[in-house]
């Protein structure tokens, strides 16, 4: 089972700042263990796809992503989901504060 | 002596401290960058689940565990540790107290509960996640460990004495590394913990997420690992010695606002 995630979305100067934490081993080929890493991260704003990102093995264990969205309003729903190379996934959503 | 050479000598005398200052500033900048969005928060979430999970022969959770402010009171509990506990008749730090609750509340054996107190990135220990969760409930509060009870005073004195106690095959003491200002190993400063300014930042940031190992580290682990690095016999988990050292460091750093669980290199 995928470990916990944590998200925060706040309005700052007309933009929405999103910060999301993910629990993931992000195992690389160098470790000698089977590859296990997040491949896709998707962000939805009020249910509408906003970002489809591809992530590589170069990202650290337990990654932190933070980014700014133009606009946004208090109460908007931000959903962040990840999908790894083994087909495991997790997602979390929050309302913009 | 050529003028250029003389300039180099002058530089050796004066430029080096300036460069050291820059390095320190850069390290500080790096720390600030990683502080916002620390994976320590993920351990807090795990810890919360473990705190509420019924375990042991009695199948009860730790929610009635008395960390010093009353059964189940989490807010500010970490900031008031270590302290003397009447029911155990000894000074306890957070982890020692959690162990006490696992044994007395959940009915677990000490052997089982301490089988794996220090985890790793792939499998964090129960103690690590619980420490993250409990400590986080004291964020923004001033560190005020117990220091009025005679046993609290005795623990402080013992901790201070141990800080200077040279022993083991290398004849090391804490002061061998943490005894002179400005020393560091790679990027890691070695704070002199006799100096309240240094002890304060330690008290304010432990336990912490360790970036280089992607694991969570606790104060009991820090004491255990320092003794290992000094090539001394491994101290027992929650022993009087490790609790005394934690008492000494926390009392020296008292008054600082707790900002953790923090990030370590």
Would you spell out the secondary-structure blueprint of this structure?
The complex is a heterodimer of chains A (97) and B (265).
Chain A: E1 5-12, E2 15-22, E3 38-45, E4 48-54, E5 64-70, E6 77-84, E7 89-95
Antiparallel strand pairs in A: 1-2, 2-5, 3-4, 3-6, 6-7
Chain B: H1 3-35, H2 40-51, E1 83-85, E2 90-92, H3 94-104, H4 110-113, H5 126-136, H6 150-164, H7 174-178, E3 184-185, E4 188-189, H8 196-205, E5 208-210, E6 215-217, H9 219-229, H10 240-252, E7 262-264
Parallel strand pairs in B: 5-7
Antiparallel strand pairs in B: 1-2, 3-4, 5-6
Helix pairs in contact in B: 2-5, 3-5, 6-10, 8-10, 9-10
Written account of the structure:
The complex is a heterodimer of chains A (97) and B (265). Chain A contains no helices and seven strands. By secondary structure, chain A is mostly beta strands. In chain A, the strands form two sheets. In chain A, strands 4-3-6-7 form a four-stranded antiparallel β-sheet, with no helix packed on it. A three-stranded antiparallel β-sheet of chain A has the order 1-2-5, with no helix packed on it. In chain A, a hairpin with a 4-residue loop joins strand 6 and strand 7 (89-95). The mean pLDDT of chain A is 92. Chain B has 265 residues and is mainly α. Chain B has a single domain (36-264), classed as Cytochrome Bc1 Complex, Chain D, domain 2, CATH 1.10.760.10. Chain B has helices at 3-35, 40-51, 94-104, 110-113, 126-136, 150-164, 174-178, 196-205, 219-229, 240-252; strands spanning 83-85, 90-92, 184-185, 188-189, 208-210, 215-217, 262-264. In chain B, the strands form three sheets. A three-stranded mixed β-sheet of chain B has the order 6-5-7. The interface between A and B is medium-sized, with 13 and 11 residues.
